[in-house]
Amino acid sequence: MEDTLKYINEKTNNFKPEIGIILGSGLGEFADENCDYALFYTEIPNFIKSTVHGHKGRLVFANINGKRVVMMQGRNHFYEGHSMAEITYPVKVMKKLGVKNLILTNAAGAVNESFKPSDLMIITDHINFMGTNPLIGPNDADFGERFPDMSEIYKKDLIKVADECAEKLGIKPQHGVYFASSGPSYETPAEIKMARIMGADAVGMSTVPEAIVANYCGINVLGISCISNAAAGVKGGQSLSHEEVIETTNSAKASFKALLQAIIYAF
Ligand code: HPA
Predict the structure, then answer these.
(1) How many independent structural domains does the chain possess?
(2) Any catalytic annotation for residue 194?
């Protein structure tokens, strides 16, 4: 951690971000448009390479609307073969840099039958169905306690801010529970039915590890899913593809970016 922070501080002139953002599939453009310093993950000591198509793999620092922001342009996923500790390491780095509020974004499949592709969903809670937990292993009391409370990861006051910003922009976001599966295979229709019975509204392969670690470290979390497709079996029998996910997030990008700008300003 010392090596990581030393490198970042040197390269960014001791930039002290207050807001963190992790940009999901197809949403990385926001960091191209707001960029004061950019560091590739590959050059930062102890960071890991992002490998998924549509993810750039840079840590970007920018002043946006008078707020100091650090963004992950592309995230690392569990399904790439990295450990839970590895994929959540950047959240701990953000904590050390001074981040207070973290906005987690992703592309997700709709489990809720009333959701449409291109809808934005504000995450109210999650179900960790990845089969593991990023906090397994010795506890570093420097970050948080052994058995951290998870009753309100996605902070109600941040959701309220996001709702107010959306309303001003004429965006009507959905709200719901995000269900995380490990991937990389998409779910089966039976698994999606199970997720719905369990109370899920959207499904994806990310976000939950970072949300758990952020909450554990005392960082407030806001989660926004861009609904990219109907999950398996939801709209009859059509199959899913990563191309479809990227295409739909592309079409939702404009409202997503506007909402992000407004939320940063309001935080
Ligand atoms: N399932 C899991 N992850 C996803 C999906 C999906 O349908 N869409 C985008 N990410």
Answers:
(1) 1
(2) no
